[in-house]
Design a protein that fits this description.
heterodimer, A: 5-stranded parallel beta sheet, 9 strands, B: about 85% helix, globular
């Protein structure tokens, strides 16, 4: 990790509200997350979890309220925020025609200014190293999810925003991902996880927002 | 690897789109075959009088090129939209305009360049003079990048829309008309032994204008679609 890990970062959501199709999805969402903490957003299907995450990553703009990163509105300091944040959406964001390694090289060029290629290491950490050169088209959906999540490992982002990380993962995969979040948090990183599964990360400060 | 990160992101995205296009070569072949079929339809309908074919060839080639490019534009962003890679591009810390430029260049290499080569072959078969072939080559070289550039902005507006495939030609074909007029005029002049530098200047101006503005328009359209 670089020297940023000693810095103290914070993500602050203030009075967020969001409408979809003229209907109120949620309002007055407030939370404060600082270095080393993980936030789980849980709730039923269609309750607006993903919309909240899209607002947090800056893809969508909230109807009201604002999101601040290190006390600055993310819309004002967009380029800095994009450096510090990595988002894994509901869709995997990997191309089926390319191999996992090719996908990661592309992802790395999009995130890191100049990266030393740790793509194979990332795949090894997700225990899919042997699939590195197989087109993603031939992988199972759990394996694809692992490829997508290994993007987090090659980015040096302080803040991880992850939508349903455990979808289609087996027990081993779930354990790996939980360990990944714990390592990230104990190194001073922040994470927001959207999932409807009960999630327990006993070793790190853990917050929860429940949508109904 | 200590290169400029912007250069790095440009080349990586370009390579990615080229690889990706090559691995879906049937789609590439489709738009080229479509182009060839449209052009070869005309002799069946209008007769095989060589003088007539020579006269209509520039117009036919350009209209077929517009249609074939319009068909292929769908590819530029839609598959990236569906698998979520487009979101990743918009959330990149590098300027999205560079990423868009890489995608446009890749699109041109995969659709524009094959069209140019095919037009040369067809021109020889249709019995065009050397001067006309020269004019067709120059207008296509300058004009097909415009098709990809303007196309990227319009495609970005319709990405992920239901019925976007129908909407796209309606948005885009009118925008291609100025290019069409100057290109066909250039080839017609050339076939009569006249100079066509004036038209070339106009087409070049259109190209410069679209290179400077289209990437920004594309990025803005993508933001609108996502915001």
């Amino acid at each position: 990790m670089n020297q940023q890990s000693i810095d103290n970062n914070s993500l602050f959501a203030e009075n967020l509200s969001c409408f979809r199709n003229e209907q109120l999805l949620f309002k007055e969402i407030n939370f404060n997350l600082s270095s080393g903490e993980v936030l789980q957003i849980e709730g039923t299907n269609g309750s607006g979890k993903t919309s909240l995450l899209r607002i947090l990553c800056g893809l969508a703009i909230p109807e009201e309220g604002k999101v601040s990163w290190n006390n600055q509105d993310i819309q004002d300091t967009r380029s800095q925020y994009l450096q510090d944040m990595h988002y894994i959406g509901h869709a995997n964001g990997i191309k089926a025609e390319l191999t996992p390694i090719e996908n990661l090289v592309v992802a790395q060029s999009l995130t890191n200014p100049i990266g030393d290629c740790s793509c194979r290491d990332a795949l090894a950490q997700m225990e899919i190293e042997e699939l590195a050169d197989v087109p993603v088209r031939k992988l199972s959906s759990g394996q694809r999810r692992r490829v997508a999540l290994s993007r987090l490992l090659i980015s040096e982002a302080r803040l991880w925003l992850v939508d349903e990380p455990f979808t289609s993962l087996d027990d081993g995969g779930r354990l790996l991902v939980k360990k990944m979040f714990e390592t990230h948090a104990s190194a001073g990183g922040l994470a927001v996880i959207v999932t409807h599964d009960p999630l327990e990360l006993p070793n790190i400060p853990f917050k929860k927002i429940t949508f109904n | 690897m200590h290169t400029n990160p912007l250069y790095n992101v440009f080349t990586t995205m370009l390579k990615r789109d080229l690889f990706f296009g090559m691995r879906r070569s049937s789609e590439l072949a489709n738009s080229l075959i479509f182009f060839l079929i449209v052009v070869t339809m005309f002799p069946f309908v209008l007769g095989t009088e060589p003088a007539l074919l020579r006269d209509i060839y520039p117009g036919v080639i350009w209209v077929a090129a517009l249609l074939s490019v319009t068909m292929s534009l769908d590819r530029m962003f839609n598959s990236d939209f569906e698998d979520g890679t487009l979101e990743q591009m918009l959330l990149s810390q590098h300027p999205t305009t560079f990423i868009v430029m890489a995608k446009v260049v890749a699109h041109w290499l995969l659709t524009g360049v094959p069209l140019i080569i095919a037009s040369m072959f067809l021109g020889v078969i249709f019995g065009l003079s050397y001067e006309s072939l020269q004019a067709i080559l120059v207008t296509l070289l300058l004009g097909t990048p415009v098709l990809s550039l303007v196309g990227s902005a319009a495609t970005a507006l319709t990405v992920g829309l239901r019925g976007g495939a129908m909407l796209l030609p309606l948005i885009i074909l009118p925008l291609y008309i100025p290019l069409l007029i100057f290109s066909v005029a250039a080839v017609n002049n050339a076939s009569q032994g006249l100079g066509f530098t004036g038209e070339i200047y106009f087409i070049s101006a259109i190209l410069v204008l679209t290179i400077t503005l289209a990437p920004f328009a594309t990025v803005l359209s993508l933001r609108i679609r996502f915001g």
